[in-house]
Design goal:
This protein has one domain: Rossmann fold, CATH 3.40.50.450. 38% of the residues lie in helices and 16% in strands. The chain has a seven-stranded parallel sheet with strand order 4-3-2-1-5-6-7, with helices on both faces. Helix 2 links the parallel strand 2 and strand 3. Helix 1 packs parallel to helix 2. It is globular. The two termini are 30 Å apart.
Length: 199
């Protein structure tokens, strides 16, 4: 694909994590701003979400937060981010993350990041989402997920073609080039989404 203009980043809310995850987030955020990418994220002020927003803002980039109203009510929203959209539910928020983006990046995270990432992969399998999904595997954090996904292909829960839905990269510098190299995907993926129906 061509250079992405608008990217959604899924990442951790926890602040109690190894400094290497924060450093990778800062490096990534700088490269997104340098390349004129408009960032969309969960709107949080803590953890990797907070670092992502702080760095994008410090570098003069553009960032939009999308957050359910109930999280704003308990003051989880990043105060420096001015472009905000509030949703009623987590489901609505997840749908909005995917609107009008050229792809998404998953940084390290907990259950929230994992479920956002796996929903996007599932939608891609069904042809409902067709953009690149880049997973930043800082320090091998996502090795078990990679093994799980590859095992699901090996054991024929998905087909070999589904391996093209995601790209794992080891460093933040590899993220943007991975968008350009990501295999094309189309809504026709629905035709081979159900592995058992293939000829
Ligand atoms: P996790 O990867 O489990 O830290 O979850 C990240 C996701 O959880 C975000 O996209 C949010 O949906 C949600 N989340 C959890 N805690 C917070 C927080 N303190 N501020 C904003 N969003 C949060």
């Amino acid at each position: 694909m061509s250079d992405p203009k608008r990217i959604c980043v899924y990442c951790a809310s926890s602040s109690n994590i190894n400094p290497t995850y924060f450093e990778a987030t800062r490096v990534l955020a700088r490269s997104l701003v340098k390349n004129g990418v408009h960032v969309v994220y969960g709107g949080g002020k803590t953890g990797l979400m907070g670092t992502l927003a702080d760095t994008v803002l410090a570098e003069g980039g553009q960032i939009k937060g999308i957050m359910p109203r109930f999280m704003n009510e308990v003051e989880w929203a990043h105060r420096g981010v001015t472009d905000f959209e509030f949703t009623e539910t987590m489901h609505e928020r997840k749908a909005k993350f995917l609107e009008g983006i050229d792809g998404l990046i998953a940084l390290a995270g907990g259950s929230g990041t994992l479920e956002e990432l796996l929903e996007a992969i599932t939608l891609k399998r069904l042809g409902q989402f067709t953009k690149p999904i880049i997973i930043l595997n800082t320090g091998g954090y996502y090795d078990p997920l990679r093994e799980m996904l590859e095992r699901s292909v090996r054991e024929q829960f998905m087909s070999e073609r589904h391996l093209a839905m995601w790209t794992f990269v080891d460093t933040p510098e590899e993220v943007l080039p991975a968008f350009v190299d990501a295999p094309e995907w189309s809504r026709d993926a629905i035709r081979f989404a159900n592995h058992g129906f293939e000829g």
